[in-house]
Specification:
114 residues; alpha+beta; GMP Synthetase, Chain A, domain 3; three-stranded mixed beta sheet; 3 strands
Length: 114
Amino acid sequence: MSGFKTGRISGDIQREMADILREVKDPRVSKLLSVVKVDVSGDLSYAKIYVSAIEGEEKTKESIIGLKSAAGYVRRVLGQRLQLRKVPEIKFIADDSIAQSAHIAGIIEGFEHE
Protein backbone atom coordinates (compact mmCIF):
# COMPACT_ATOMS: atom_id res chain seq x y z
CA MET A 1 0.00 0.00 0.00
CA SER A 2 2.81 2.43 0.79
CA GLY A 3 4.34 1.84 -2.67
CA PHE A 4 1.16 3.12 -4.27
CA LYS A 5 1.10 6.16 -2.00
CA THR A 6 4.73 7.14 -2.66
CA GLY A 7 4.17 6.67 -6.40
CA ARG A 8 1.10 8.88 -6.31
CA ILE A 9 2.86 11.56 -4.28
CA SER A 10 5.88 11.41 -6.61
CA GLY A 11 3.59 12.08 -9.55
CA ASP A 12 1.83 14.91 -7.71
CA ILE A 13 5.16 16.50 -6.79
CA GLN A 14 6.44 16.19 -10.36
CA ARG A 15 3.31 17.85 -11.77
CA GLU A 16 3.37 20.71 -9.24
CA MET A 17 7.14 21.22 -9.49
CA ALA A 18 6.88 21.75 -13.25
CA ASP A 19 4.53 24.64 -12.51
CA ILE A 20 6.43 26.02 -9.50
CA LEU A 21 9.76 26.14 -11.38
CA ARG A 22 8.26 28.64 -13.82
CA GLU A 23 7.42 30.93 -10.89
CA VAL A 24 10.96 31.03 -9.46
CA LYS A 25 12.34 34.51 -10.12
CA ASP A 26 16.04 33.65 -9.75
CA PRO A 27 17.81 34.57 -13.03
CA ARG A 28 20.04 31.49 -12.75
CA VAL A 29 17.02 29.19 -13.11
CA SER A 30 16.31 28.41 -16.76
CA LYS A 31 12.79 28.99 -18.04
CA LEU A 32 13.21 25.84 -20.18
CA LEU A 33 13.76 23.57 -17.19
CA SER A 34 11.96 20.22 -17.11
CA VAL A 35 11.30 17.90 -14.20
CA VAL A 36 12.49 14.53 -15.47
CA LYS A 37 11.81 12.34 -12.43
CA VAL A 38 10.93 12.54 -8.74
CA ASP A 39 12.00 9.95 -6.18
CA VAL A 40 10.32 10.14 -2.77
CA SER A 41 11.64 8.20 0.22
CA GLY A 42 9.42 5.57 1.81
CA ASP A 43 8.64 7.74 4.83
CA LEU A 44 7.92 10.77 2.57
CA SER A 45 10.55 12.91 4.33
CA TYR A 46 12.92 13.33 1.35
CA ALA A 47 12.37 13.97 -2.35
CA LYS A 48 15.03 13.88 -5.04
CA ILE A 49 13.95 15.98 -7.99
CA TYR A 50 15.82 15.34 -11.23
CA VAL A 51 15.75 18.37 -13.55
CA SER A 52 17.15 19.01 -17.02
CA ALA A 53 17.43 22.14 -19.16
CA ILE A 54 17.08 22.07 -22.93
CA GLU A 55 20.00 24.52 -23.20
CA GLY A 56 22.43 21.85 -22.01
CA GLU A 57 24.26 20.51 -18.99
CA GLU A 58 25.96 23.79 -18.02
CA LYS A 59 22.62 25.64 -17.86
CA THR A 60 21.17 22.74 -15.84
CA LYS A 61 23.97 22.99 -13.28
CA GLU A 62 23.53 26.76 -13.07
CA SER A 63 19.80 26.25 -12.55
CA ILE A 64 20.49 23.76 -9.74
CA ILE A 65 22.48 26.44 -7.89
CA GLY A 66 19.56 28.85 -8.22
CA LEU A 67 17.06 26.20 -7.12
CA LYS A 68 19.10 25.35 -4.03
CA SER A 69 18.92 28.97 -2.93
CA ALA A 70 15.16 29.03 -3.61
CA ALA A 71 14.50 25.64 -1.96
CA GLY A 72 12.67 27.17 1.02
CA TYR A 73 10.26 29.04 -1.25
CA VAL A 74 9.74 25.97 -3.46
CA ARG A 75 9.08 23.73 -0.45
CA ARG A 76 6.60 26.21 1.06
CA VAL A 77 4.63 26.58 -2.17
CA LEU A 78 4.67 22.81 -2.71
CA GLY A 79 3.28 22.29 0.79
CA GLN A 80 0.49 24.79 0.18
CA ARG A 81 -0.52 23.19 -3.11
CA LEU A 82 -0.38 19.53 -2.08
CA GLN A 83 -1.57 20.00 1.52
CA LEU A 84 0.69 17.27 2.86
CA ARG A 85 1.06 16.69 6.58
CA LYS A 86 4.83 16.68 6.17
CA VAL A 87 6.42 18.35 3.13
CA PRO A 88 9.49 16.38 2.03
CA GLU A 89 12.94 17.93 2.17
CA ILE A 90 13.87 18.68 -1.43
CA LYS A 91 17.15 17.88 -3.17
CA PHE A 92 17.62 18.97 -6.78
CA ILE A 93 19.78 16.80 -9.03
CA ALA A 94 20.99 17.66 -12.54
CA ASP A 95 19.97 15.18 -15.23
CA ASP A 96 21.17 15.47 -18.82
CA SER A 97 18.64 13.07 -20.34
CA ILE A 98 16.93 15.75 -22.47
CA ALA A 99 20.24 16.77 -24.07
CA GLN A 100 21.12 13.11 -24.63
CA SER A 101 17.78 12.37 -26.27
CA ALA A 102 18.15 15.41 -28.56
CA HIS A 103 21.63 14.18 -29.52
CA ILE A 104 20.33 10.67 -30.27
CA ALA A 105 17.45 12.11 -32.30
CA GLY A 106 19.98 14.09 -34.34
CA ILE A 107 22.02 10.94 -35.00
CA ILE A 108 18.93 9.02 -36.09
CA GLU A 109 17.86 11.87 -38.33
CA GLY A 110 21.35 11.83 -39.90
CA PHE A 111 20.95 8.15 -40.75
CA GLU A 112 17.56 8.73 -42.34
CA HIS A 113 19.01 11.26 -44.78
CA GLU A 114 21.74 8.89 -46.00
